[in-house]
Amino acid sequence: MRRLLPYAILALLLGGCADAEPVAPATAPATWTPPAKYAFTLGSECGERALIGRFRVTVADGRVTGTEGLDQAAKRALMLRIADLVPTLRQLEEEAATAQRAGAEVVRVERDPVDAHPVRITIDPSTNAIDDEACYTIQDYTIGLAATPSAPPSR
Description:
Helix content: 10-25%
Radius of gyration: 24 Å
Number of helices: 3
């Protein structure tokens, strides 16, 4: 009988949990709302275009207010002085949405599980064409003041 007592207590305790409401796992928001001020590191890795390299970007009120080239390709791109060359995160999302509406063969937007800001965007209008892709990675996303950019990946 003494051997069965712990099992009986355990059965009673576990039986009380059977009627408990299941707890739903927390889910990420479906959409991202840009804050008034934020900063991020943008990696633009593919395609034949001016926006290639790693950039530190600061945004205020929906506009890019500062850019810094973090590698030689980015520094060369910024020397072109093309207006609005470096986009905000909202503009990157709009680029993906426009490509989707235009029938691009590949459009992927990966999001942060906590606040749903984009962390990787891949666009390929035609998988048979060469150098028409756009590939972006977003790192070091900070709300408010700009954070120090991370070191570039070693090659």
